[in-house]
């Protein structure tokens, strides 16, 4: 086993919000015993976690602006042309939700390369049909662009030694797309920053949905399902809150709420504010389309709060129907029925007990597993590079 501190370069395309990717990177920076430098195209100090300022984050010349499609083209170009100074590192890690793996074409070092894979690019695979149907530009361009991307993607993955994943859903995607064989994919525990958090005994009458405001997170479904349940007439509220990624979609969420005073939409939540809402809520919702892993359900369970989630993607690996939450189809009727059912005292009591007993995915376990696996794989492959 490696005794010395490794010098690790990590490439993250952007650090610009307070999402799951940023939280995972921050956990690694704060807790790993190894020396880590972060390279990124976009580092937005104001919108992301302030703790990043304590670490060595190096911004590359590759940030982009403009429409989503234009940003995608610029990012694609930057991935293929940017050179990172990797000569003195022991390990190169790529944090990818798609596209980031293309960085290996200009950066194929003589050290192990590991991809922390949040998911292969969804617009190229699992959500191709969704995006193609969303507007005429995508309908015209995606059939031309995506086959080229898939060829480049497969070539890039041949230069990657191992992948770390947080869920079996992501493992399945990597294998089914022919990107890497199962014996080179390693599962590591997700990381929840507990900071002394434990189950809360407070159960105020509101449902909480914490997630970025973007269409595939389905906050509109949360609003419509809640209104259909009629629970607003029984003193319940719905609170949806998170970082605004799509302003147009946020307006759609507000329109669906129709000014109902029982629905609160929050866009400026601090970490403390989110924690307070988790601690006091009745239950949480998580309705994202085919989510990769989903940290929101894990955070909810950490507070001892049941989760209503859709039967898609990674979250259903952690939310067990009838034990610590309710797993539903992604439609208003199913959501409304589930919300009504868990307000029944006997059912709710059972779900709360299940949530409290659910496995906890804390930072210490995450980092212990991360460091041990990194060290083992570096020892195994470095001599062969």
Task: Give structural attributes.
2 domains, globular, 6-stranded parallel beta sheet, about 375 residues, Rossmann fold, alpha/beta
Low-confidence stretches: none
- Taking Cα atoms only, what radius of gyration do you get, to the nearest Å? 21 Å
Largest beta-sheet details? 7 strands, parallel
Instruction: State the fourth-level CATH superfamily of the largest domain.
Output: Glycogen Phosphorylase B
The helix-and-strand class reads: alpha/beta
Q: What is the average per-residue confidence, as pLDDT, rounded to a whole number? A: 90
Indicate the CATH class of the largest domain: Alpha Beta
What is the percentage of strand-forming residues? 15-25%
CATH topology of the largest domain: Rossmann fold
Strand ordering within the main sheet: 5-3-1-6-7-8-9
Helix content: 25-40%
Total discrete domains = 2
- Net shape: globular
Summarize the structure.
Helix content is 37%, strand content 16%.
Question: Could you describe the 3D structure shown?
Answer:
This protein has two domains: 7-191 and 363-384, 3-Layer(aba) Sandwich (Rossmann fold), CATH 3.40.50; 206-357, Glycogen Phosphorylase B (Rossmann fold, 3-Layer(aba) Sandwich), CATH 3.40.50. Strand 13 (283-286), helix 9 (295-302) and strand 14 (307-310) form a beta-alpha-beta unit. With 385 residues, the chain is of the alpha/beta class. It has helices at 20-31, 68-81, 128-132, 136-157, 168-176, 219-229, 247-257, 271-280, 295-302, 332-341, 345-357, 363-381, and strands at residues 7-11, 14-15, 35-40, 42-43, 57-59, 91-96, 113-117, 162-165, 185-187, 206-210, 237-241, 263-266, 283-286, 307-310, 325-328. The strands form three sheets. Strands 5-3-1-6-7-8-9 form a seven-stranded parallel sheet, covered by helices on one side. The chain has a six-stranded parallel sheet with strand order 12-11-10-13-14-15, sandwiched between helices. The protein has a two-stranded parallel sheet with strand order 2-4.
């Amino acid at each position: 086993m490696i005794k010395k501190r490794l010098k690790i370069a990590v490439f993250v395309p952007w650090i610009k919000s307070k999402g799951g990717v940023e939280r995972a990177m921050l956990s690694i920076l704060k807790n790993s015993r190894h020396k880590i430098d972060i390279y990124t195209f976009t580092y937005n100090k104001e919108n992301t976690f302030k703790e990043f300022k304590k670490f060595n984050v190096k911004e590359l010349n590759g940030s982009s602006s403009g429409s989503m499609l234009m940003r995608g083209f610029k990012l694609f170009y930057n991935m293929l042309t940017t050179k990172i100074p990797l000569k003195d590192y022991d390990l190169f890690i790529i944090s990818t939700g798609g596209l980031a793996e293309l960085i290996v074409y200009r950066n194929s070092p003589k050290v192990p390369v590991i991809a922390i894979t949040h998911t292969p690019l969804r617009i190229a695979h699992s959500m191709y049909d969704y995006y193609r149907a969303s507007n005429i530009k995508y309908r015209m361009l995606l059939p031309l662009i995506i086959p080229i991307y898939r060829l480049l993607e497969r070539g890039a993955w041949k230069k990657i030694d191992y992948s770390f994943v947080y869920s079996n859903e992501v493992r399945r995607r990597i294998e089914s797309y022919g990107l890497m064989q199962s014996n080179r994919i390693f599962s590591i525990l997700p990381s929840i920053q507990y900071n002394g958090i434990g189950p809360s005994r407070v159960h105020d009458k509101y449902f909480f949905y914490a997630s970025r405001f973007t269409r595939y997170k389905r906050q509109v479904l949360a609003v419509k399902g809640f209104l259909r349940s009629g629970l607003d007439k029984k003193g319940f509220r719905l609170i949806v809150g998170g970082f605004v990624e799509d302003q147009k979609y946020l307006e759609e969420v507000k329109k669906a709420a129709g000014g109902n005073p029982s629905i609160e939409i929050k866009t400026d939540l601090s970490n403390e504010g989110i924690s307070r809402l988790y601690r006091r809520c009745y239950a949480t919702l998580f309705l994202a389309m085919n989510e990769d892993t989903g940290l929101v359900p894990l955070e909810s369970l950490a507070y001892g709060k049941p989760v209503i989630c859709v039967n898609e993607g990674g979250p259903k690996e952690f939310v067990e129907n009838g034990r610590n939450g309710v797993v539903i189809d992604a439609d208003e009727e199913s959501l409304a029925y589930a919300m009504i059912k868990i307000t029944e005292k006997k059912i709710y009591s059972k779900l709360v007990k299940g949530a409290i007993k659910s496995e906890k995915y804390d930072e210490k376990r995450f980092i212990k597993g991360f460091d041990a696996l990194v060290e083992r794989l570096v020892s195994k492959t470095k001599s062969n590079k």
